[in-house]
Amino acid sequence: MTKRLVLNLMGPDQPGIVDNLADVIAAHGGNWEQSSMARLGGNFAGILMISVADEDADELVKVLESLDSTCLSVTIAPPKIIPRTGTVVDLEIVGQDHVGIVHDISHVLADLKVNVDEFESYVEPASVSGGNVFRAHVCIRVPDGLDVDEVRDKLENIASDLMIDLNFQVEG
């Protein structure tokens, strides 16, 4: 049997973090299945799912937990397998950066019970105005029974107040 583990990783960014993780995982017969990693504010942040044979899992966990003492905080948990249903929508958000964009968008989605599967955002200098531009790519999952057009309408209703442009693309 195999065991799946989800690792949450955080520490000061430095060359070799991913290589060191990959070495430890491979040395203990682990398989790197899925990950999302980024440099945020000078820190390395990542989420990683691995699988490992049951008989190797305890030793691998012990070694991974020992990485905490090397400036990399590691939290390990079993994955939660939840069936994914609903309509997948890619949402692109672009607008002048200001406080409240993520708050207001996420509030609408939460009220509608729409799940956020992925959220990536960044701020960059505006080319003309001298201010900053907020950009986000959000993958949401609209639950069965909720009309995708209702979600689109609610988001578009707040877009002008937030001074953002939305691109709403239904997958499939």
Q: Which percent range fits the helix content?
A: 25-40%
The proportion of strand residues reads 35-45%
The number of helical segments is: 4
Structural class, from helix and strand content? alpha+beta
CATH class of the largest domain: Alpha Beta
Strand order of the largest sheet: 2-3-1-4
- Cα-based radius of gyration, to the nearest Å: 20 Å
The first-to-last residue Cα distance is 34 Å
Tally of extended strands? 8
The rough form would be described as flat
Number of domains: 2
CATH topology annotation of the largest domain: Alpha-Beta Plaits
Q: Regions with pLDDT < 50 over 5+ consecutive residues?
A: none
Summarize the structure in words.
- It contains 4 helices and 8 strands.
- β2 and β3 form a beta hairpin.
- The strands form 2 sheets. The protein has a 4-stranded antiparallel sheet with strand order 2-3-1-4. The chain has a 4-stranded antiparallel sheet with strand order 6-7-5-8, with helices on one face.
- The two termini are 34 Å apart.
- The mean pLDDT is 93.
- α3 packs antiparallel against α4.
- 29% of the residues lie in helices and 44% in strands.
Offer a few descriptive terms.
4-stranded antiparallel β-sheet, about 30% helix, alpha+beta, flat, 2 domains, Alpha-Beta Plaits, about 170 residues, 4 helices
Protein topology:
Layout: E1 2-12, H1 17-27, E2 31-40, E3 43-53, H2 54-66, E4 73-77, E5 87-96, H3 101-111, E6 115-125, E7 132-142, H4 148-162, E8 164-170
Antiparallel strand pairs: 1-3, 1-4, 2-3, 5-7, 5-8, 6-7
Helix pairs in contact: 3-4
